[in-house]
Amino acid sequence: MFQGNGNGQGGLFARLYERLPVGAKEAFRILGAFRTREGRANVSQELREKSWKWADDTMRAVSAGMGIADVRALFRGDPPVEKPNPRYKVFTNAFFAHIRPRYYEKSSTKFTHTFGLGFLSAFTFIVESITGIILMVFYIPEQDQAYQSMVKIIAEVPFGQLMRDIHRVGAELMVIFVAAHMLRVYLTGSYKHPRQFTWVTGMILLLLTLLLSYSGYLLPWDQLAYWAVTIGTSMAKSAPPKEILGYISNLLLRGGDTIGQNGLLRFYLLHVILVPFITVILISVHYYRVSRLHGISLPASEEESPDPAVRKAAKERLDYLPEILTKELMWIAIGVFAITAFSAFTFHAPLEHHSDPYRTPLHTTAPWYFLWIQGMLKDPWVLPILRGIRDFIGIDLVQFYDSPAVQGVILPTVVFLVLFAVPYIDEWWERFRGKTSSRQGKNRKLGLAMGWGAVILAVIFSYFGTPYFGVSAPPAVEIGQEFIPEECVLPPIPLLLDDCGEVRRMGFEGLPVGTYNLSLFGSLSSDAEEFQKMLGRMQTRVAKEAAHAKDTGNKAGLPAAEGFFIVEDWQKDLKKVTLRITWTPKDESDSGTYEKILYLHKDSAYE
Amino acid sequence: MTTQLKIMVGLIFTLLTCVPLAAIAVNDLGHDFGIVSKTQRTAMQEREAALKGREIEAGADNYGQYCVGCHGKQGEGIPSVAPAINRRDLLDGSYQKRIGWAGNVPDFLRNTIAAGRPAPSRPDLFTVRMPTWSNQYGGPMRADQVDALVAFLLNWSEDAPDIDAWPPAAATGPRPTPAPGAAPAAGAATAAQKCTAMPAQYAGKKLPYKSDDRTAMAQGKQKYDEVCAACHGTRGRGDGTAAASLNPKPRNFTDKQYMQTLPLDCHFWITMEGSAGTGMAPWKSLGEDTLWKIILYERSFSGVY
Questions:
Q1: What is the CATH number of domain A116-352+362-465?
Q2: Which chain B residue shows the shortest CA-CA distance from A158?
Q3: According to DSSP H, which parts of B80-202 are helical?
Q4: How far is A337 from chain B (nearest CA, A)?
Q5: Which residue of B has its CA nearest to A79?
Q6: A158 and B4 in contact by Cβ < 8 A?
Q7: How far apart are the first and last CA of chain B?
Q8: A569 interfaces chain B, CB cutoff of 8 Å
Q9: A54 pairs with which residues across the strands?
Q10: Domain coordinates of chain B in residue numbers?
Q11: Which of A50, A365, A424, A548 counts the highest number of beta carbons within 10 A?
């Protein structure tokens, strides 16, 4: 607006104007333009262009190479709008895209080939990390406060129970997914050359997953936690040579002779720092080998097809952007929904009584994924076979085998070592047979049979590891445990709810005060009340033991057993429940009576 | 699946995730949001109550294990052993106020249980000293067990009876110490010396029950467990929970040699009148018949009738 003025007195303004900074000149120019309609239109047009460029640049920076138009096209599923294709630029510029492949080979993404198990394993690991960090805010790794902080998380922290439930569900799922992933890789022969070492890193990840889950087991500091970990570390204690390795590993893990404050802190640090740290590194190595080095394996039938057209079609490119990315985001959304809904409506992580070193629960078991090891300690097959070998052939392995060191430490170690070596054993075997390597099922019937055989054995041995097999407390104690277990019993199958026993399920209101002679409830009409039916079931169990005693001439069972069920009002909203079983003592050491006492509060809500 | 369909499905599930989250929000924050009326419990409060209930259950269990012996089945106390603790003034804070305790009731109970008392507070009323219970002070209980026990005791609050467990100390002062010579040496090998002081009306008293009378024995056991086991132990070994703080130690009924020197009439007399110079209180108030049943049971530990 000043340029137009002449040289006279305007000269001063012109000189002043010359001295103004560029930005101020620009501001005057825009203000000047506002005088006309055309000028205003120009300014607005200019502004729009500038903002667009700014936004586009920002998008290019964030997406590492793609402009707004291209991102829009990407998510609409349209082809790229710019040339050269900016979507590939992302993979050289961006860190997170850098670790993903540019494209997948089409057949390797078939759901029935991989079942997405590697993806799901990684997904659960991230879920665990997020919920774990939230739980860390409220958890105190101190033996007098740990349990109290669990109570606080459940009862006082908004969304606290949800976080804990998701963390628990995710942990179980992670073990399931990782194990299933291993099985899948074995069955499709994907561990074969050139992916042999990838299998080894995967095996390390399997061990780390088990260690993560197991080290987290101790942290709630309840009876379940304390005794499951006591069992596990006592296995480490018997590692040979017991006086050196066993002693040291026990001392390192427990931080003392038994698990106390030191042990809790050690497991906490293992769980939240050391193992996750190593796991992240190993996941990186594992994933780098999968994504960058060899890619996901193709289905064997297509890779080894005699028809070149099939082989070519299998390798057709499927771009990561946007095909795989949107697919992954979709599955993440579905996964988050599934795990949240399941934790909110169905599953609640159990919290047993505070840990008590002086009260061993009746049937302690390892977590379900270690039940097979516990099963090896009491399987009914190997020892008789070894005894037979000793008696008929003369090679005595019985003494060697019959020790916790061999069954609890050496054998599991051998199992894992064999698993580690699978690709190399496989290669050696193929060379020994003089066959060309093939991943197809029809060419590796022995391998498949061994794989499924191992799965079946693992299931059978896990069954041997459960309390349903080969463990028996005195019969009266078993009856007590059946109806009034000390703790709510976790089923050996993951993600099912725990069972608190019939009496607790009956609830405070469902247990009328009185003394009940069970023999009066032996035969009930079908319209009897639920409570009476329960007494009837107790009587059936007691009568069974009495009959068993009769049959065996009082050697087993409970001779002339009688049961009483007593419910007393004990305090406000508190009832004392006693299950008393009396029988004729079998010998001097037999007291002839057994009592199981339960205090049941109105609010305690066992379901 | 086309890209747009995948994005759509992803969005739908993201929105669906809000359903469980909203349900949890109502459960956990219903009061804060004003969705659940203040008179109703939210699910989180129900969980809190459930955990509190389970703590009370654990406390009841501990009470049955450690406290019943001296304070009685329902906290009603046992005469001469330990005071009632289900009484109103202890649980509503008036007792604490009277003795000048500035803290709250749970802390008073917690500290009393954890650290016990250095000496019997009222030797004229109760002979037994409250032992230390927390493992912090060498007792058997963990901190959480003491807490659970406190929760159990406080659950009596609402229907605790008004009992005056602490009448003013008797004018005669503390329990009279017996004259020298009359007191038997602790753990004396025979009871003969003690029994010489037995009044004539007790001489020659005999068990009104046969030694194999199981009904009387069972009744005797029930009463024994209630009032005697605190000091004499559930198995008659003289090792009850309260025994640690007693000197001389409670009699060991399984000691055959000693029991042979203790005739039934003398046993009955001591049970009726108490034993001077020891923690043994007179139990006349229970009635002769009950005492005979108890004696029948006590004798069964050694088998000497």
A1: 1.20.810.10
A2: B28
A3: 88-92, 94-98, 105-115, 143-154, 192-195
A4: 5
A5: B3
A6: no
A7: 92
A8: no
A9: none
A10: 44-159, 192-302
A11: A365
CA angle A380, A385, A390 (to 5 degrees): 135
In angstroms, the CA A406 to CA A604 distance is 44
For chain A, which residues make up each domain, given as ranges? Answer: 36-98, 116-352+362-465, 475-601
Please state which of the four CATH numbers 1.20.910.10, 1.10.760.10, 3.40.190.10, 3.40.50.1100 is assigned to the domain occupying B44-159.
Answer: 1.10.760.10
Predicted confidence at residue B178, as pLDDT, reads 44
Q: Which of B6, B14, B159 sits opposite A326 (nearest CB)?
A: B6
Do B192-302 and B44-159 fall under one CATH topology? yes
A125 at the B interface (CB within 8 A)? no
Cβ(B78)–Cβ(A192) below 8 Å: no
Q: Which residues of chain B are within 8 Å of residue A332 when distances are taken between CB atoms?
A: 10
A156 touches chain B (CB under 8 A): yes
Tokens of A108: 């390797």
CA distance A215 to A228: 10
Q: Which residues of chain A have pLDDT under 50?
A: 1-2, 4-6
Identity (one letter) of the amino acid at A17? Y
Is B192-302 a CATH 3.40.50.980 domain?
no
pLDDT at B186 over 60: no
Is A214 in contact with A347 (CB distance < 8 Å)? no
In this structure, are residues A596 and A490 in contact, taking their beta carbons and an 8 Å threshold? no
Note the pTM of the prediction, 2 decimals. 0.84
Within 13 Å of residue A569, how many CA atoms lie on the same side as its CB?
7
* Peptide bond between residue B248 and the one before it cis (omega within 30 degrees of 0): yes
Closest by CA position to A482, among listed A566, A530, A539: A539
ipTM of the shown complex: 0.87
Tens-digit pLDDT profile for residues A311-355: 999 999 999 988 999 999 999 999 999 999 999 999 999 999 999
- Please check whether residue A601 is in contact with residue B51, taking contact to mean a CB–CB distance below 8 angstroms: no
CB contact under 8 A, A336 and B13: yes
